Structure formats: C-alpha cells, structure tokens
UniProtKB/TrEMBL annotation:
Gene Ontology annotations for the cellular component aspect, listed alphabetically: nucleus
Subcellular location: Nucleus
Keywords: DNA-binding, Nucleus, Repeat, Transcription, Transcription regulation
Pfam families referenced in this protein's UniProt entry, alphabetically: Myb_DNA-binding
Listed Low complexity bias regions: 234-246
Stretches assigned to the HTH myb-type domain: 9-65, 66-116
UniProt name for this protein: Uncharacterized protein
Segments forming domain Myb-like: 9-61, 62-112
DNA sequence: AACTGTGACAACCGCTCTGCT
DNA sequence: GAGCAGAGCGGTTGTCACAGT
C-alpha cells in the first residue's frame, strides 16, 4: 500500500526549531495539554508537521526531562535494559523517566555501543547476541523460534541485570537509580507486550511526568543568555553545570530574564503532577530480585510461572 | 590560522500499532 | 472485519562544535 506522507510536504518547515517556535508550542501545550498533535500545527500556526511538534515536545520541551550527564547508575541500567529489552528505547526510557528514548538511543549509539565494543571481546556491542535481541533478529524467526530466542535473551539479560543490581546495591542508591527503580511499574505496565503505549510520554495522567517550570526556565534562560543560534537555544543550551544547577533548583524559582514578555509561562502547567521519581521501594526491588535470583538455586521458571511479565505484573507501585 | 576528522545530538523518515468508524 | 487516521517507535541522517593536525 502506498503510504501518504505523514504531512503535507508543501510549506512544512523542517530543520532545527527556533526559540519562537518552541515558545508557541510550549504555550499551546500549556494551554491544551499534549495530545491531538494533528491539530497543533493548524491551531498554533506553526509551519511544522504534527509529528515534528510531538517529537519536539517529547524529546526536548517536555518538562521533567534531564539532559546530558548520564550517571553511572543510568549507564549501567541502560546497558542491562538494552540487553534485556533490545533496542526498544521507549521501553528502556520508561525505566528512566527523566530521559527520553531519543536521548537514550543517542547515548547508546555514541557512548555505550562504542564502549562495549571496545571493552568487550568484539562480540559485545552491536554484533553481540546480548545487544541484538532486537526485532531484526527476532523478526526473521517463526513464532516458536521467536519465543525461544526471547527466552534466551531474557535469561541472558536476567543474569546481566542481576549482576547490575548486585553492583548497584553495593553502592549507595542514588536518586537516579531510585527513579529508575521507582518507575519500574511504568515499565512493567509497559512491558514488551504493550509497548505501543510506549513510554507514555505524552499522557500526563499516565506518565506523571515531573512537570515543573524548570525546563521552561532553562530554555528561556538559555535564550536569554545567548539568543544566538536559534534552535540551539534550548537544544544545546544547557551545559552540564548549568543543567545540574537549574535542575537542583528545580521549580523553585522562575527567573527567566525574559519572563516579563512571556506572561503565559508564569503559571505551572495545569496538569502538573506529582514527580514520577519516587524513592526506591525495597519491597519492589526485592520483588524483581526474587525473580532475578529465581534460577540461582536451579529453579528456572522461564516463561511459565515466573515469567518476566509475571514478575513485572507483580509490581504495583 | 585554516583545514580536517570525529563526536554528540536534534530532527527526520518510514514503518507499525492502536483506536475509531 | 475492513479501512482509515493518528500516534508512537526505532533507525538513520544532518548539522554543529570541538579537537587534532
């Protein structure tokens, strides 16, 4: 079937977003909430396709997302989740509520893949079995084979994750790890079987993302400071230090410098919800640990009683 | 100082999935 | 059940910044 283009190519702007466009989009979403992306370009007058608007929002403008500076915990988690889930970045991102799938994907492609390739025996990384349980490999298989491969992948990943958890437990849990652990429920609900709901990035009620004004503040702060390269404004505007600095101040102050001209941004998002990053719940961790360690004593549940899904479903955070 | 190579990241593209009619 | 539209996902590309020569 010939698929029509996702959007009318005529008159649709492409390339980096300008601060003005960001503002328009943010203002619109602040007013109407994310969703109904089809209507966004027409209602806002943005010369962008709906897809582009959604991506811009989810990958950059959405409040509560953290950029750059992946912690060791996050790195480990990503590595092991990648082994567990394959290249399903949205699913992986659901374990890291402050990170976008695009961010994680980029981080994987630019840092971790190389790292694993370099550190491993060459079998790791992209070509390694652990790193490619992905659809490509699975797609070519029949359903039975698919399930077997999936189980193999799960077994392998389970061991890897077990090791990771063990090492993480040796270290004092950091907020990031806490967030990751605390958000397991989202991922559980978003288990491979229901990946279409993805990271539930756009649904305020579902994701409960950390909607603060901090991101907007950061964004505007960046613009105010440079005002130079348009789309780089918010896009690359937050150097490591300032990012962490503003993150630490979180929603406390809203000093944009240009806020006077932006009255629409003075109030928090109406659908602002509680932070999705919660303290690690020991019982939750122990639940997954019990699953992870299930085969240590020779009991391998595979996909019967002790499937990953079952274990995941046991999580009710 | 100019040029080149490389890394990082934002954005696009095409496909799949889901919900609605 | 079929067809369609919208939304989401993963792979890939384009662009910019910076380091090295």
């Amino acid at each position: 079937m010939v698929r029509p283009p996702c959007c009318d190519k005529e008159g649709v702007k492409k390339g980096p977003w300008t601060p003005e466009e960001d503002l328009v989009l943010v203002s619109y979403i602040q007013e109407h909430g994310p969703g109904n992306w089809r209507a966004v370009p027409t209602r806002t007058g943005l010369m962008r396709c709906s897809k582009s608007c959604r991506l811009r929002w989810t990958n950059y403008l959405r409040p509560g997302i953290k950029r750059g500076n992946f912690t060791d915990q996050e790195e480990k988690l990503i590595v092991h989740l990648q082994a567990l889930l394959g290249n399903r970045w949205a699913a992986i991102a659901s374990y890291l509520p402050e990170r976008t799938d695009n961010d994680i994907k980029n981080f994987w492609n630019t840092h971790l893949k190389r790292k694993l390739q370099g550190g491993g025996d060459g079998g790791e990384g992209d070509g390694g079995a652990a790193s490619k349980p992905s659809t490509q490999r699975l797609a070519s298989s029949s359903k039975g084979q698919w399930e077997r491969q999936l189980q193999t992948d799960i077994d392998m990943a389970r061991r890897a994750l077990r090791e990771a958890l063990t090492s993480i437990h040796d270290v004092k849990p950091l907020p990031d790890a806490a967030g990751a652990a605390g958000s397991l429920s989202g991922a559980a609900a978003d288990s491979p079987a229901s990946s279409s709901s993805g990271a539930s990035q756009c649904s305020p009620s579902a994701s409960g993302y950390v909607l603060t004004t901090a991101n907007i503040s950061r964004m505007l702060d960046g613009w105010a400071r440079k005002g130079g390269r348009p789309s780089s404004g918010p896009a690359t505007p937050v150097p490591a230090e300032s990012a962490s600095a503003s993150a630490s101040s979180e929603a406390s102050e809203v000093s944009y410098g240009v806020s006077a001209t932006l009255p629409v941004l003075t109030s928090p998002f109406e659908y602002e919800t509680k932070p999705s990053v919660t303290a690690p719940d020991q019982t939750q961790l122990s639940a997954i640990e019990s699953w992870l360690f299930a085969d240590v004593d020779g009991v391998d549940h595979h996909l019967q009683g002790g499937s990953l899904l079952d274990a995941a479903m046991d999580y009710t955070f």
